[in-house]
Amino acid sequence: xxxxxxxxxxxxxxxxxxxxxxxxxxxxxxxxxxxxxxxxxxxxxxxxxxxxxxxxxxxxxxxxxxxxxxxxxxxxxxxxxxxxxxxxxxxxxxxxxxxxxxxxxxxxxxxxxxxxxxxxxxxxxxxxxxxxxxxxxxxxxx
Length: 142
Hints:
Elements: H1 8-12, H2 23-31, E1 34-38, E2 43-45, E3 53-59, E4 62-66, E5 69-74, E6 79-80, E7 94-97, E8 101-107, H3 108-117, H4 121-141
Antiparallel strand pairs: 1-8, 2-7, 3-6, 3-8, 4-5, 4-7
């Protein structure tokens, strides 16, 4: 791995959706990602478009824009779109690269195949989601 790049498995372990997954699960998910080199100015996702993939920025930087205004910048190790794997709702922001970048992409169909073909994977994801919902509920009550 080149300097300034992040291992996709390391990032997957920090994503709430994958929090209950084993190291073996994370390796399997990482193997189903595609590494894509993208030039500066490339829109990884567009606000309003249907979500259909999960992204991990391995190298480079990107801007997050909502309604044409920059709201954040992301860099190596940051991720976006994990909920699009479960619900292809419209994207709530545009993410555009600020420099040549390398992105790991997990497409929706590959993710669905993992759910169907990997014993216990769906149950571990559901456990992660339930834990996250419980945490959010506890915060809203407190």
